[in-house]
Each structure stands twice: as structure tokens, then as C-alpha cells.
């Protein structure tokens, strides 16, 4: 009788990540259910982002810490699942991508604030920064169930990329539309900012994690 060798790669760690995501959502729902709903539907409600900007919420508030960690978790897992290398290395890639993404987002936030101070548009750019961040949170909330479906039901690499691209394009469109006065009055600096802090890092991260 011929013995057939089977190589089994456990994905228990991915299930654990999803469980952590569910716990973070549960905590957000218990703490601020209206905020969670607001961010979930923010793509269709400009008034929510505007009202949150006027309230000037602290980025160190419990809810924003929870949703920030949730977003880091989702985007890190997304980059790992888009990776085409052997599954055995994905957990190690996740452990590398997560802290790297965390540092990257924090540095980008600091640089953006610094640019605002240099151009003397810090006060004017508050809504721009908050809407950009708020829509990023919305993206993570939409991506979470898609990642679960792709992991346990139907995975299609191309469709996952297309869905992410559509969300990114929609986020960019809403950000530009809702901040058109600020952007077009500083168009050169906006193009410079977009290419260096938005487009280039995305291409670098994607290239790094898929080769």
C-alpha cells in the first residue's frame, strides 16, 4: 500500500485574529454603540464626520483606541492574506506587518500634522485629517466580514484586490469631495502629499507583501 503524505497547515492563528476582532467590535458596541454605527455608515453620512470633527474627539479616547487597533488588525490581516507565498510563513509575516503598519500610520499622522503647521493650515486641515481617518475606520469595518468570507467560504485573490481598490477609491473620492476648497487652494501640496504619503506607501507595502 502506497503511503500518501499530507502537509497540513493550521490556520488557527487566523481564527484567533478574527476572535480578537469580534472582541474589539463587542467592546466598541458596549462602550459607544452609536459611534460604531456612525463609522460603519460614514461613507453615506457626511454629517457624521462633520459632527465628530466639531466635537474634536481625542485620539486617545477609549473608543478611538479600540477602533484604531481594530483597523490595524484588519489591514495587517488583509496584507497577509493577499500574500502569495506559502501559508506556513504567513503568521510570521503577520507579526512583521502589524507593528510596521502601526508605526507607519503613526508616523504619517505626525508628518501630516507637521505639514499642516508649516503651511499654516493646521486649523483648516482638521476636517481633512479627521475625515481621512474616519473613512479608514469605515473601510476596516467593511473589510472585516469580507476577510471572514474569503477565509472560510470563498477565496478569490483578484476579487479581494478589486473590492479593496473600490473602497480605497471611494474613500479618496469622498475625502476630496468633502475637502475640495482646502485641496484646490493648496493643489500642488495636496498632489505632493498624496503621492508621497498615500500612493507610494500603498504600492511599497503591497509589493513587499506579495513578492
Largest sheet, strands/sense/barrel? none
Give me the count of strands.
0
How many helices? The count is: 9
Low-confidence regions: 1-9
Helix fraction by DSSP (H/I, runs of at least 4): over 70%
Quaternary state reads single chain
User: What is the percentage of strand-forming residues?
Assistant: under 5%
> Mean pLDDT, as a whole number?
78
Looking at the structure, what is the overall shape?
A: globular
Helix and strand element order = HHHHHHHHH
List its traits:
211 residues, mainly alpha, disordered N terminus
Descriptive notes:
Mean pLDDT is 78; it is low at 1-9. With 211 residues, the protein is mainly α. The protein is globular. The protein has helices at residues 12-31, 33-40, 46-55, 62-81, 90-118, 126-152, 157-178, 180-185, 187-209. It has one domain. It has 9 helices and no strands.
Indicate the topology.
Layout: H1 12-31, H2 33-40, H3 46-55, H4 62-81, H5 90-118, H6 126-152, H7 157-178, H8 180-185, H9 187-209
Amino acid at each position: 500500500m502506497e503511503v500518501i503524505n499530507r502537509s497540513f497547515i493550521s490556520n488557527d492563528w487566523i481564527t484567533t485574529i478574527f476572535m480578537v476582532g469580534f472582541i474589539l467590535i463587542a467592546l466598541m458596541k458596549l462602550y459607544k454603540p452609536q459611534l460604531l454605527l456612525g463609522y460603519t455608515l460614514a461613507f453615506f453620512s457626511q454629517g457624521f464626520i462633520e459632527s465628530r470633527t466639531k466635537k474634536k474627539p481625542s485620539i486617545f479616547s477609549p473608543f478611538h483606541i479600540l477602533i484604531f487597533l481594530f483597523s490595524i488588525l484588519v489591514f495587517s490581516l488583509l496584507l497577509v492574506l493577499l500574500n502569495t507565498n506559502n501559508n506556513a510563513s504567513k503568521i510570521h509575516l503577520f507579526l512583521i506587518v502589524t507593528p510596521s503598519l502601526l508605526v507607519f500610520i503613526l508616523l504619517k499622522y505626525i508628518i501630516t500634522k507637521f505639514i499642516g503647521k508649516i503651511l499654516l493650515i493646521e486649523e483648516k486641515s482638521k476636517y481633512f485629517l479627521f475625515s481621512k481617518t474616519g473613512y479608514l475606520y469605515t473601510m476596516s469595518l467593511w473589510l472585516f466580514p469580507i476577510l471572514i468570507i474569503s477565509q472560510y467560504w470563498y477565496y478569490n485573490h483578484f476579487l479581494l484586490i478589486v473590492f479593496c481598490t473600490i473602497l480605497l477609491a471611494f474613500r479618496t473620492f469622498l475625502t476630496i469631495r468633502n475637502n475640495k476648497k482646502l485641496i484646490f487652494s493648496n493643489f500642488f501640496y495636496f498632489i505632493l502629499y498624496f503621492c508621497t504619503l498615500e500612493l507610494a506607501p500603498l504600492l511599497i507595502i503591497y509589493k513587499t507583501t506579495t513578492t
